[in-house]
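Next comes this protein:
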Amino acid sequence: MKKEYLLAGMAILFWGSSASVSSLMISSLSTISVVFFGSLTAALFLFLLCLCTGRLKLFRSLSLHELAHLALLGLLGMLAVNLFYYNGLSHLKAQQAFIINYLWPILIVLFSCLLLGARMTAQKGLALALSFFGVVMVATEGHFTGLGQISMAGVLFCVADAVCYALFSVLNVKVTCDKFVAMTVYYSASTLAALPLLLTSGPVPALSLPQMGVLLWIGVFVNGLGYTTWAMAMDIGDTAKLSNLAYLTPFVSLVYIFLLLHEPISWASFAGLFFIVSGVLVQLLKGPLPLVSYRHSH
């Protein structure tokens, strides 16, 4: 197996675990606690990575304006995204939250048209319609006359998460500095902004060893190594071919959810995922949808 496919496969395995391990944390910790400790772990890991790879000198080349811009992107793409996603997980089954969240790739198309001047075509419109129909399928659990037993608040949280991440991804296209440096700033900004929210939400929780282990997994493997191995794969491999592999992530996630959470996968979840991914694939007919940023889906 070529090295780039091995690296990309590692990233997909890390990202695919996000929904199930995050669900385990949400059941025992508050949303803001998971956001803070996950961001802190990722920031420390990426800082050490920059230290070991000689990237620390790149921080000195950033102006205050550039740092502020990166920090604001971090608040959108890391803090807001995770707050919405974890709140969604606290209201929904892991499979429902993850599948609704997977609207983000197709929303990139919409925001590219609105913000970057890309042209809206019939193909893009069909892709959007298919993906949104998939969300309706999951949100109604296949019963189109109502929401059934699903939480509308959870659905809205996950849609808001997908909107924020797609917007972040489009804006991230214009970031020209080293992506590892940028990710370090993103997670550092998320950590600093989450700290006062954590301190004002109640007593800071004392983490147990299992909780620390799961948070290390989220911060180091899902956020840190997931991004690192994906970036390395994209650097040495065919970007177009590798980009399409990212669409395996939701299917890998369902396997994790079934094995770790013992959560039966409903037919409505499979059907909704089918329509959402079909929308993405329709967009790929004339070439890959550019993955302008990574997403562990989280």
